[in-house]
Recover the amino acids of this structure.
């Protein structure tokens, strides 16, 4: 079922979940996300998500169990397991206030880092699948090669991809020691709950799993290395993670030997998606996208195993 097909049913479902007694309501529905890999609709204080069509029920159920067990770190679902709706898995969540993209100075970087540190220190649940970070990076590269293989910016991105170790390309198991990881950390994965006044919580468990905790720090690390995140913001984020006892990086030593490969992988993922999306939209790459592609070009000249730092 396509995103267009599932949306009306999802709207009706979230209204029913928000008002189980069929009480009259004047709240409008709000579509928070409408993509093939996830459609999200809000009604009043309830949010319903239709997960990607290839989502495995057992793995999603395990991820929901983890979120329920750690409500001080992850937003807990309203129901313990997924439901089925027209061939898609549906989950229900309380509404939380997202990060305001119009106020970047107020972005909760320290809070995000602290939540990650706490998540990484939790015991890994038995049977939890691998976190899906490397899989998502690999899918971005497949999307690039499938939609824009002849784009002039594609060669440096693909060269940078080929320099990465097999585990970062989802071609081999991730190295240990394993940790409980979010798998797709960015500022869109945080909300305040209760809305507006509550503490920050991590959301979106689709990529949650066991893996290399440095992956969760890789996107802000990559942005910093590409010149897209100010050095002081990166320093605040890293320091907050270290203060909270996060195990991904040394407490008092250079973090880049650990962060280098994941940051490179996230840079390639971002660049690949930028090329694919700009091609589909028939528009040129913007300055931010160009900066990420330029970083891939620099990275491809210095393989990770030879680099003492991310080539900036």
């Amino acid at each position: 079922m396509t995103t267009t097909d599932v949306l009306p049913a999802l709207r009706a479902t979230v209204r029913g979940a928000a008002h189980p007694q069929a009480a009259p309501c004047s709240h409008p529905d709000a579509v928070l996300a409408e993509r093939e890999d996830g459609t999200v609709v809000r009604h009043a204080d309830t949010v319903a998500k239709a997960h990607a069509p290839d989502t495995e029920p057992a793995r999603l159920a395990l991820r929901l169990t983890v979120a329920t067990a750690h409500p001080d770190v992850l937003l807990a679902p309203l129901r313990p397991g997924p439901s089925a709706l027209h061939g898609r898995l549906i989950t229900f969540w309380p509404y939380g206030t997202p990060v305001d993209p119009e106020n970047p100075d107020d972005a909760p970087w320290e809070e995000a880092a602290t939540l990650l540190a706490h998540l990484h220190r939790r015991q890994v649940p038995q049977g939890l699948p691998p976190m899906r970070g490397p899989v998502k990076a690999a899918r971005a590269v497949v999307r690039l090669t499938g939609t824009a293989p002849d784009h002039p910016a594609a060669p440096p991105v693909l060269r940078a991809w080929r320099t990465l170790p097999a585990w970062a390309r989802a071609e081999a198991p991730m190295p240990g020691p394993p940790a409980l990881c979010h798998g797709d950390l960015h500022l869109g994965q945080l909300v305040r709950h209760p809305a507006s006044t509550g503490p920050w919580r991590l959301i979106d468990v689709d990529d949650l799993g066991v893996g290399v905790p440095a992956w969760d720090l890789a996107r802000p690390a990559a942005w910093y290395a590409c010149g897209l995140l100010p050095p002081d913001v990166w320093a605040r984020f890293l320091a907050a993670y270290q203060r909270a006892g996060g195990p991904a990086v040394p407490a008092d030593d250079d973090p880049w030997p650990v962060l280098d490969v994941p940051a490179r992988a996230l840079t390639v993922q971002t660049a690949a998606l930028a090329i694919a999306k700009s091609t589909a939209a028939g528009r040129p790459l913007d300055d931010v996208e160009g900066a990420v592609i330029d970083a891939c070009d620099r990275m491809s000249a210095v393989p990770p195993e030879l680099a003492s730092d991310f080539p900036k």
Observations:
- The chain is about 40% helix and 15% strand.
- The radius of gyration is 20 Å.
- The chain has a mean pLDDT of 93.
